[in-house]
Design brief:
The protein contains 13 helices and 19 strands. By secondary structure, the protein is α/β, with parallel strands linked by helices. It has 2 domains: 151 residues, Leucine Aminopeptidase, subunit E, domain 1 (3-Layer(aba) Sandwich), CATH 3.40.220; 323 residues, Zn peptidases (Aminopeptidase), CATH 3.40.630. The strands form 4 sheets. Strands 7-8-10-9-13-17-14-15 form an 8-stranded mixed sheet, sandwiched between helices. A 6-stranded mixed sheet has the order 1-6-5-2-4-3, sandwiched between helices. The chain is elongated and about 85 Å long.
């Protein structure tokens, strides 16, 4: 579905446009007299007597070619609620044959720019679909022309468009099949983002071996594809302040390795790189909107395959940090990729904080379903900021415990630690506890386990099913509210 937004000064002169008009929660029409003909006004006033005013969107067929659509705004409406209204609008009218709409910005007396921006933002986010490999594509278009003397600021247009582009890029990456978006191809795609002003460095297997990133390399050694660490730097601050760091797990396909997964639903493991896709989409968004911060994105890209050279259960590997890990289960691979990436990010960039994202454990889905990402952190301030940002954009996180008492579950008799807890229980927490061991210099750190959030079979408020792009808007909000 294509969404086209136009902006024009003055009233709509095209009487055939479907009209979108905002009203209060009681559907009071008094403010609309200047924007409707007398016949339209009388017609709607009469029909309102028969309508369910508990609905947020009401539609009236004025004639065979024109609808008048009233969108109800309650008092003190929140931005995310306005975005949800935009998404509902899309769902209701996406199949309409007459798909040209006019929207008047002058009707809203308070914060009209924000209301319209958020409404259109929600509409666009909901409209996403991945049809790249379909021979017959959806050619429907929705065209919305925003009329009125009140202009939407240029900054708002740029900001929302950048967030959408970043979110869509993340969704595109997650939606790609494993035979297309393997680590070699993924690294090449990230490199193309340098045209937006990002500084990109790609570390291939030769460089990674020299650096000693053996936990990351061990995961990918059974695949014919390469393994990579890719860094993306955005320097948008005028000073040389410490960057904000975002680290993502990029397992492009996860068979489980020698500890092979069951065949049922293994096709979903194309999205085991969603954490990295969020980081890539976020960095693209920051560059597009020229965010006034310094930031770095780091992703580890591997494919976990059961080849003749694959890592075995019982292997012991030495990480970039110098700590050794006994591999008891090759399907607990994401934490091995992140281990080297986290230590390298902390040592190389000395960031203000590190947030990592990964589809790390099925256990987090048992705990939180598809409503919250699991948040684990060594820092209360950063945790509270993430919780607040998540509430603002409805990409929610729930803080889970970390405690030294969990360490005994991942201590190994043969190495510094083992990569899984064989005793049972606390699967997500012991995975996070493992990651925390690779934060060496007490840098504020948060781990987001997004296994239940990255992909949705049934869709959500702002997505129609499939890859959600969860995390791009959350982290953008974190940056916007607390660090710009």
């Amino acid at each position: 579905m294509s969404i086209k937004i136009n902006y024009k000064i003055g009233l709509s002169k095209n009487k055939s446009f479907n009209s979108i008009l905002f009203v209060d929660e009681k559907f009071n029409l008094s403010r609309l007299k200047n924007y409707l003909s007398s016949s339209e006004y009388s017609y709607i006033l009469d029909l309102l007597q028969t309508k369910d005013l508990k609905k947020e969107i009401l539609s009236f067929d004025f004639n065979s070619k024109k609808k008048i659509i009233l969108v109800s705004l309650k008092k003190n409406i929140k931005n995310n609620e306005i975005e949800n209204l935009g998404a509902k609008f899309y769902d209701e009218f996406k199949s309409l044959k007459q798909s040209e709409f006019s929207l008047n910005s002058d009707i809203i007396s308070l914060n009209s720019n924000d209301i319209i921006s958020h409404f259109l933002h929600g509409l666009r986010l909901k409209s996403y679909s991945f049809e790249k490999y379909k021979s017959k594509k959806n050619k429907n278009k929705i065209s919305i022309t925003v009329f009125g003397k009140k202009k939407i600021s240029f900054n708002n247009k740029v900001k929302f468009r950048a967030i959408e582009e970043g979110t869509f890029y993340t969704r595109d990456l997650v939606s790609e099949p494993g035979n297309i978006l393997h680590p070699d191809e993924y690294a090449k795609r990230i490199y193309t983002l340098k045209k937006f002003g990002l500084k990109i460095n790609i570390y291939d297997e030769k460089k990674l071996k020299k650096l000693g990133m053996n936990t990351l390399l061990g995961v990918g050694q059974g695949s014919v594809r390469g393994s990579y660490l890719v860094t993306m730097e955005w320097n948008g601050a005028k000073n040389k302040s410490k960057p904000l760091a975002f680290v993502g797990k990029g397992v492009c396909f996860d068979t489980g390795g020698i500890s092979l997964k069951p065949a049922k639903f293994m096709e979903d493991m194309t999205y085991d790189m969603a954490g990295s896709a969020v980081v890539v989409g976020l960095m693209k968004s920051l560059a597009l909107r020229k965010a006034k911060i310094n930031a770095v994105g780091v992703v580890g890209l591997v494919e976990n395959m059961p080849g003749g050279n694959a890592q075995r259960p019982g292997d012991i590997v030495k990480s970039y940090s110098g700590k050794t890990v006994e591999i008891l289960n090759t399907d607990a691979e994401g934490r091995l990729v992140l281990a080297d990436a986290l230590t390298y990010t902390e040592e190389k960039f000395k960031p203000k904080f590190i947030v990592d994202l990964a589809t790390l454990t099925g256990a987090i889905i048992v705990s939180l379903g598809s409503e919250y990402a699991g948040l684990f952190s060594n820092d209360n301030k950063l945790s509270n900021q993430l919780i607040n940002a998540g509430e603002q954009v409805e990409e929610k996180v729930w803080r889970m415990p970390l405690n030294k008492n969990f360490d005994k579950l991942i201590d190994s008799k043969n190495a510094d630690m083992q990569n899984i807890n064989y005793v049972g229980g606390a699967g997500s927490t012991t995975a996070a506890q493992f990651l925390q061991r690779f934060i060496l210099n007490k840098t504020p750190w948060a781990h987001l386990d997004i296994a239940g959030m990255a992909f949705s079979k049934y869709g959500g408020a702002l997505n129609s099913g499939g890859a959600t792009g969860y995390g791009v808007r959350l982290l953008n909000k974190l940056i916007e509210d607390y660090y710009e």
